[in-house]
Amino acid sequence: MRSGNANSGTRWADAELTARAQPLVEYTLRLADDALVLSQRLGEWITRAPELEEDVALANIALDLLGQARALLTYAGQTEGAGRDEDALAYLRDDREFRNVLLVEQPNGDFAVTMARQLVFAAYQYELYDRLRASADQTLAAVAAKAVKEVAYHREHAALWVRRLGDGTDESRLRMVAGLDAIRPFVDELFDTDDLISQLGAVAVDPADLREPWAAYVDAVLIDVGLELPDPDHTARGGRLGLHGEALGYLLAEMQHLHRSHPGASW
Amino acid sequence: MDGSDEQEAAFYAIIDADGRIEPRDDMPEAYRRSLVRQIAQHAHSEIIGMQPEGNWISRAPSLRRKAILLAKVQDEAGHGLYLYAAAETLGVSRDELLDKLHTRRQKYSSIFNYPTLTWADVGAIGWLVDGAAITNQIPLTRCSYGPYARAMVRICKEESFHQRQGFEALLALTRGTPEQKAMAQDALNRWWYPSLAMFGPPDTEGGGAKRSTHTEQSMRWGIKRFSNDELRQRFVDMTVPQADVLGLRMPDPDLRWNDERGHYDFTPPDWDELFAVINGDGPCNAQRIEHRVSAHHEGQWVRDAASAYAAKRQRHLEGVA
Ligand SMILES: [Fe+2]
Ligand SMILES: [Fe+2]
Of A10, A85, A94, A135, whose Cβ has the fewest other Cβ atoms within 10 Å? Predict the structure, then answer.
């Protein structure tokens, strides 16, 4: 997962070209792919959660994220104008075309890793959607207005579990610390800004602006139980340019296999 | 209930008036035990049933189908929760019941011991298995135990939604490519007889007196309203015309309408196979329990942390107060 390097030269020129040609499509795919890939990961918990209530809660969060992804993919396809619908975008793109951050594709690990990832991502997505409600693009604003209420719950759910695990038993505390360590390398990428963002102006939210309010929320949760986000020993990035970790290929292989086995079929 | 005649008379007075027994009411111990067993088995079936369908969440062939399936499996977890809560009103905890499931001292519906081999199996389960569940459960909305009856009202609404969605998923396949249609037919071929077996053994043959005594007792107590064969017939009569709409063939050459009876005649399931599956010899019995037990084990430290945290907060609040 250390391979991602956003500055590795001309090989990614195609993606950047598309981005310049259709910045709104590219931006919408970033939002959509974050939600879709995390939804797919959370779905893996169902029937394996620590208690029935969590099977329900994680399914609920996965469903919310899937709903956001579907609205955003549909909009990306419409804006692109090449006849791709939500399924064409979800099932027929390869991993190099996915625009999600590396954080959301990370394997679930144990419940502490998943909750660390949930806290970090939901807190980020909350600040993002909260501002995107005022987007100059009406569709994105409408998706954000609906989603921000869902994500407020995702954030609370994760915060509650991080507190419980952080201040539960000795074992849970060790695992929570390890969970935060495991996801730490993938945090900084969330707040990266680039030309696409400046090009889009009032349509997009600048991720860099989210870091401070995000940190205020996450730190308050962690400080409450005497935890902190460690300094990273390395950082990984590249998801926005389609430079993913190896795990995403397997996630997509599983997700896309059946759809691709029946070209042109409808379900 | 200490068995006094007065209390027993009061209990049967409620039953005979088609009233509801509530947790605070006196009830015969045998009634309570029988209900615990039935509700627990039902709850276990809901949560084990999440596995064969959960098997396809990651691979659902469209995002719309993925959302429908996620919501369905979530509903089944919710059904498990309502039912364990209903059982708790009879003085048993969810933990005790789960422990009995994990150690195979309580059963769940055998239908979930068959594998979901293709996407069409998800549709077939919704259409047939949820359909059979509804047929079994609608009468239970009027059963004599209040908390169980009320849980069933809520659950039946959702099950009928699942049944329609399953039917619709299969319809998309039978109207699709030849490969999709073949997938749907194959799923029906594999799920038809196991679905018929969901209603339990026949009322008259192959069982002997013990079963019918049990059925009679349950009927007297108002926790069973129709016999297994009546419910099975009702399910067949409801399902055959739906298969016609789907354009699928029932895997039963002897299935035909009987004008005299006003019902379909059909071939019953192979009871030897059913009992083998019930007794642990189905294709997925070991896998289903193993999956459940390992999820439970792996979640132990999480549940422990939640209770330790709650206890600390409680002490903290008391200390402050
Ligand atoms: Fe159910
Ligand atoms: Fe159901």
Answer: A10
Give the count of domains, chain A.
1
Residue B110 has phi, psi (to 5 degrees) of -65, -20
Q: Which domain holds residue A129?
A: 2-261
Q: Which amino acid is at A91?
A: Y
Using alpha carbons, select from B181, B73, B193 the residue that is nearest to residue B126. Answer: B73
Average pLDDT over residues A63-71: 98
A207 assigned to some structural domain: yes
Which ligand ends up closest to the CA of B163?
2
ipTM, 2 decimals?
0.94
Residue of A nearest to B295 (CA): A48
pLDDT-wise least confident of A65-79, B64-78, B261-275 = B261-275
**Within a domain: A250:** yes
Separation in Å, CA of B314 to nearest CA in chain A = 13
Of A40, A59, A163, the CB nearest to B309: A163
Model pLDDT for residues B39-87, shown as the tens digit of each residue: 999 999 999 999 999 999 999 999 999 999 999 999 999 999 999 999 9
For residues B228 and B222, what is the distance between their CA atoms, to the nearest angstrom? 15
A91-100, B62-71, B163-172, B200-209: range with lowest mean pLDDT? B200-209
Closest ligand, as measured to the CA of B161: 2
B315 Cβ under 8 Å from any chain A Cβ: no
**Cα A150 to Cα A140: distance, rounded to the nearest angstrom:** 15
Task: Report yes or no on A267 lying in a domain.
Answer: no
Q: Nearest CB to B61: which of A53, A66, A258?
A: A258
pTM for the model stands at 0.94
What's the CATH code of the domain at A79?
1.20.1260.10
| Distance in angstroms (rounded) separating the CA atoms of residues B33 and B35 | 5
Residue A87 lies in a domain: yes
Integer Cα distance of A36 and A33 in angstroms: 5
Transcribe B11-63 into DSSP letters: HHHHHHTT--B-TTS---HHHHHHHHHHHHHHHHHHHHTHHHHHTTGGG-SSH
- Asked if B130 and B163 touch (Cβ cutoff 8 Å), the reply is yes
* Interface contact flag, B80 A52, Cβ < 8 Å: yes
Instruction: Inform me whether the pLDDT recorded for B175 exceeds 60.
Output: yes
C-alpha span between B273 and B250 (Å, rounded): 19
Residue A262 CB partners (closer than 8 Å, separation 6+): B61, B177, B179, B180
pLDDT at B80: 98
